[in-house]
Fold:
Amino acid sequence: MHISSSRSIQKGLVYVIILIAILVTIVPVLEAVRLSLLEHKEVFSLPPKIPLNPNLENYVLLFSRYKAVYFFKNSIIIASIVTVISLLAGSIASYSLSRYYSGKTAGSVFFTAVGYLLFIPPVVTLLAYFEIMSSLKLIDSIFALIIPYCGFNVPLAVWFLKGFFDQFPRDIEDSALVDGCSRVGVFFRIVLPLVMPGIIAVGILIFIMSWNEFLLASFLTRSYNSQTVPILIASFRSIAYGVEYEKIAAAIVLSIMPALAFSFFIRKYLVRGLTAGAVRG
Structure:
């Protein structure tokens, strides 16, 4: 009886923690949606106003007056390119470390160095990237962001993906090699499809980090031809108009849509096993 009640309490605590986590995640989003449907004078009204008659003017102004389409286009292009390059370079590097340098001093040193790179704050490299991009005449272009973003995210991809390749059964690769498949063919035709859940998970992380990055984007871009969504959100703060919370909220609501859509369409890959169906008895 005591054991049963103890388990019930533990189960209840788990549900409470899950509920709190859901509320912490959902409530800010719902509040942003609420604010985005209000007029400026209604933002600080007490009690807080619930928009029973939604006002979409803030969303219309984002695209008609503030050219939000350019900011979203830039963010999608930059985040997509960075994700593809980082995953491709990271998967090749991490596979090489897992298969050819595992347990060797050189591999351990390189992997440790990659780990240290993850702890370098972007602000440390800000002036260096600014000088490099200025000398290459890439300031105010999407390449001014793609290059440093790849520099930050390739080590991240290597660090995470190596664990997936270490867990991948080498017997599957050996069987493919015996059947006449080349090492390159084994990597692209056998290994990559089976570790796709891990690659997709890391890809989502890289995409979101590239999408949300603000510091480098604020220093290396000048116009809406290259600026990203975080710059658009930060622009609704001025001496003349103060902080336009309703427009910030509308931009935030729109900014989370691409990442949500991306996660929705590839969700099935996240629940597949690393070797599901690879070995048949």
Summary: The chain has twelve helices and two strands. The two ends are 44 Å apart (CA to CA).
